[in-house]
Amino acid sequence: MQAVSEGRYERRRTALAMVAPGTALRDGLERIVRGNTGALVVVGCDPVVQAICSGGFELDTEFSATRLRELAKMDGAIVLDRVASRILRAAVQLVPDPQLPTQESGTRHRTAERVARQTGLPVITVSKSMRTIAVFTSDQRYVLEDSAALLARTHTELDTLERYRRRLDDVSRVLTALEIEDRATATDIALVAQQLEMVTRVTDQIVGYLVELGTDAGLLRLQLDELTTGIRRQRELLLRDYEPDAPGSAGQSAASGPADRLAGLGADALADLPAVAAAMGLSGPTDPATQVSPRGYRVLGQIPRLPPEVSDRLVEQFGGLQKLLSASAQDLRQVPGMDPALAATIRNGLSRIAEAALFDRYP
């Protein structure tokens, strides 16, 4: 189910990117709105589309905003290629399967929804009476918003993301200190996983807004990148640290199961730390205060420029964070492929991380 949901979301995002401000297609659609004309546009032409097309005439000419505007003055649909670079047909009557369900009332919008369902291609409508642009993708309908409203919403979401990121950094530092002391519990771990998931969800929402904003996004993409630096890596290392089964190698998606379960949690379940712990596979102990020992991926990940394959060999050799922390440089050199300089770097890095974490917790 999660893969299906992501597929739908990606299709909608791709369609919105085609009609984002700054694109020729969006320019043509806005010209239609300003001209107080309606339109029905299919983006893509395959055998299914050809089978439901009746009448009209073939053009196969280069796309331009002005041409789209002029062709929209005629009755019938306009068919573009998949990248909206050419106008293939115009004044076409679309005859989709009438048995397909639709929630729309107007003829143009009912046709658009059915065509999108039947073909899987984006279908765009311009409402003459409402002066709105709607994008239909499979079983989804999205009405384009004014850029000013989207910008205001994006700024609000970025403020929310900044608060979530500060909270994530705080609970992550606490978890690191607890891991150093070997006192981390399922609740402590679930709290960090919860904050990571919240940051991820807000980030996905903002990315969708930025896609729709197109050239109007300005420097907001840079701000988003700054706020989300390292999030994906933190999530991966946390899940590998506490995954119940033995972790896979660096080239395998060892945390795919817990990651999918966390992504599938509803808003209420995500707010419930025991539910988050269960999604991570930490539901074995009945007492949420039961201590859970990490493998050490998170802490090793804080050592600058340490290759992931070295981390894998260290965890495999020592089996857990506590043994890593107590290992000397000589012990570390026993790991296959470890040279003396790298062993000393790792030993010093672990010591600095432990000292910094404990200093933050007990200033």
Write the layout of secondary structure elements.
Blueprint (H helix, E strand, L loop, with lengths): L1 H17 L5 H11 L4 E5 L3 H6 E2 L2 E6 L2 H7 L5 E4 L5 E9 L12 H13 L3 E5 L4 E6 L2 E4 L3 H34 L5 H28 L6 H8 L3 H12 L13 H8 L3 H4 L2 H7 L17 H4 L7 H11 L2 H6 L2 H4 L7 H22 L2
Parallel strand pairs: 1-4
Antiparallel strand pairs: 1-6, 2-5, 3-5, 4-5, 6-7, 7-8
Helix pairs in contact: 1-7, 2-4, 6-7, 6-8, 6-17, 7-9, 7-12
Q: What distinguishing features does this structure have?
A:
Ferritin, 8-stranded mixed sheet, 363 residues, elongated, alpha+beta, DNA polymerase, domain 1, disordered N terminus, single chain, 8 strands, YojJ-like (1
Q: Could you explain how this protein is built, in words?
A:
This protein has helices at residues 2-18, 24-34, 47-52, 65-71, 107-119, 147-180, 186-213, 220-227, 231-242, 256-263, 267-270, 273-279, 297-300, 308-318, 321-326, 329-332, 340-361; strands at residues 39-43, 53-54, 57-62, 77-80, 86-94, 123-127, 132-137, 140-143. Strands 1, 2, 3, 4, 5, 6, 7 and 8 form an 8-stranded mixed sheet that branches. The protein folds into 3 domains: 2-144, 3-Layer(aba) Sandwich (YojJ-like (1); 146-294, Ferritin; 297-363, DNA polymerase, domain 1, CATH 1.10.150. Mean pLDDT is 90; it is low at 1-5 and 246-255. Helix content is 56%, strand content 11%. It is elongated. Strand 7 and strand 8 (140-143) form a beta hairpin. It has 363 residues and is an alpha+beta fold.
